[in-house]
Write a structure and sequence with these properties.
By secondary structure, the protein is α/β, with parallel strands linked by helices. Helix content is 59%, strand content 11%. The chain has an 8-stranded mixed beta sheet, with helices on both faces. A hairpin with a 2-residue loop joins β2 and β3. The radius of gyration is 30 Å and the shape is elongated.
């Protein structure tokens, strides 16, 4: 039962009809009357212009208990904004809201959607349902009350997708997948296949957030498999079709990461990490990007010089594993450009230059800019994006890790 219902009243010639909702019905001229009977809100708000109240107000109030909300006649943009503010001010904080757009005049249904989106954020309003009484669309002269709430989910899908694309935050998308999987219309088997999509996406983005390439590649491969299995299920249920389009987008986005086909230290595996690096750049996760780029260079040296890339290594006198690779990189860093050109193979020389450039920017970030001449943030991002893109380009999936030039 909603705490509050919001409806509209216009100046049309409303004729009696029987509004039907599930196994209930109510015959009346006015949808707000049917709303009170069919949904039993604790409070019924009816937005009405002075003209609408003059024409139908008395008859409406004789039939149900309403709270009139006077709104201006919409003649220009200023009037629409005043109507918006009146509705936003009238709906109580934290209420559960049912919205009826049956008698909404002209653009009022559109305005009600804007009010809904605003109230959900500003007043923590929970929208239980959006309904429309389809006048005599029932075939037998009845007017079925149509539930339009699922179309509100389109906006939620769009917001969740945008948050993921902009910031790499998959939590809203995970919740959307879980809510979709709980819909009874999907059927139990389809729900079982859809629910893991949200769970896998959350595990993947958690691995990305914590900079875990081995885990990320595995989870990306699992996500693609889950999405491909769920796409057909989504096509069978109209409210799930927008989710299917999103699944296609997600599968395409993570394909370069999930199709590494083997060790993360192969050419294809480092190419998948380059795709991770681009993901960090796209979602502005610069700390993760710098950390991963540096470790990718270390991994390349490990593979190229027969060092174990999963071994942290011992200290002097004979460093091994990743410690040994970093020792080599520091040694190369101490050379001038002429020495490097003579002593190193072409790709080693490229790695040495990238390491030197990364070291400077990465240290500035890692030490929180505590120095006498820290790089300004805007400049740091601009230089960092260019350098990190160069690192990602270097690790093309077809890079020959065993060649010397």
């Amino acid at each position: 039962m909603p705490h509050t219902a919001l409806s509209f009243l216009g100046t049309g010639q409303y004729s009696p009809t029987t509004y039907t909702w599930k196994d209930q019905q109510h015959t009346t001229r006015f949808m707000p009357v049917a709303l009170e009977s069919l949904f039993e809100p604790e409070r019924l708000l009816v937005a009405e212009t002075p003209g609408a109240r003059e024409k139908h107000g008395e008859a409406l109030r004789q039939s149900c208990d309403v709270t009139g909300v006077e709104v201006p006649k919409a003649t220009d943009e200023d009037a629409w904004w005043r109507m918006f503010n009146v509705l936003a001010d009238t709906v109580p904080q934290g209420t559960t809201l049912l919205v009826d757009i049956t008698h909404g005049f002209r653009s009022q249904p559109f305005l009600s959607l804007a009010v809904i989106m605003y109230l959900r954020v500003v007043k923590d309003v929970e929208v239980e349902r959006i309904v429309y009484g389809a006048y005599e669309a029932g075939g037998d002269g009845t007017s079925p009350v149509v539930d339009l709430t699922s179309f509100l989910n389109l906006i939620d899908w769009a917001k969740a997708t945008d948050q993921f694309k902009q910031y790499g935050d998959a939590a809203p998308l995970r919740d959307m997948f879980e809510d979709l999987a709980d819909e009874s219309a999907l059927g139990s088997q389809a729900a079982l296949r859809l629910k893991p999509a949200g769970e896998t996406l959350q595990r993947l983005t958690r691995a990305l957030t914590l900079n875990r390439p081995l885990e990320t590649l595995d989870e990306a491969e699992d996500l693609i498999e889950v999405l491909e299995g769920a796409m057909d299920d989504a096509m069978n249920v109209p409210p799930a079709v927008p989710a299917r389009r999103l699944m296609v987008t997600l599968a395409q986005r993570f394909a370069p990461i999930g199709h590494a086909e083997g060790s993360v230290f192969t050419s294809r595996g480092l190419g998948a990490q380059a795709a991770m690096l681009r993901f960090y750049l796209q979602t502005r996760q610069y700390l993760q990007a710098f950390t991963l780029a540096r470790e990718m260079l270390v991994s390349w040296v490990c593979v190229h010089h027969d060092l174990d890339p999963l071994e942290r290594g011992q200290s002097e006198p004979d460093p091994q594993g990743r410690r040994g690779a970093r020792a080599l990189l520091r040694e190369w860093d101490l050379m001038d450009s002429e020495e490097r050109s003579e002593a190193l193979a072409t790709r080693e020389n490229d790695i040495a230059r990238l390491w030197a450039d990364l070291r400077l920017l990465r240290n500035d970030i890692a030490h929180a800019g505590f120095s006498h001449s820290p790089t300004p943030s805007e400049e740091l991002i601009e230089e960092g994006e260019a350098l990190l893109s160069t690192v990602a380009d270097f690790f093309d999936p077809h890079t020959d890790l065993t060649g010397s030039s």
